[in-house]
Task: structure prediction
Amino acid sequence: MYDILETGGQYSSGKGETEILDELHHYNDLYRQAPKQNAMEWMEFLSRKYPATYRHCVRVAILAEKLADGMAIGEEEKKKLVIGCFLHDVGKGLLPTELWNQQASLSPEQWDTLKLHPNAGADLIRTSSELNPDILGIIRHHHEHWDGTGYPSGLKGEEIPYLARICAVLDAFDSMVSEHPYAEMKSLDEAKEELVRCSSTQFDETIVQAFLQLPNSMLGIYMDTSH
Ligand SMILES: [Fe+2]
Result:
């Protein structure tokens, strides 16, 4: 679901992004009726609708704080990184529950809908609160790939905002070591190996290297999964 290892960010059902986004907004009464909610209210909404996704966001924010402490990141940047990582999947609150509940793998149309969540999330927050553009950049670009095959914009290398590149690594790592109905959970070391394998294609290699400096003993939030 988190497209950890998915390649190819192109929309595949033949519909344009605007068309799908219109549909997404159409069946979200909340979006139409309460566009002025602030970021925290949208996160509360996400926590009620998709508690597992909300917990993922919390864990990614915790990882961001730990990683920032080991990198040359100033206090202001660190604050933006942690907030952006916490909010990165806020747009998933707008997605239909069928994407989570069905047993079969997703159809191309459902994939297209899922891939809307970065833009949907950034637009949601942009229209409802005054957030720093760097934070919006994390929300909008956390699924871009270093080689340009990600989404929503197909940005490449350093075109991808730096903080979004960090979020991409942490997002993938947490997804790999967490339980999902559709993918086997990896150990911490297996997930780290996978990050290395995908360096320079999906991820910024320098960020992966910085992340690898964090010993497993510092990843306390995953202690029960470090088999
Ligand atoms: Fe995401």
Summary: The domain at 17-216 is CATH 1.10.3210.10 (Hypothetical protein af1432). The first helix runs from residue 17 to 26. The chain has one domain: 17-216. The pocket of fe (ii) ion is lined by residues 88-89, 117, 142-143 (CB under 6 Å).
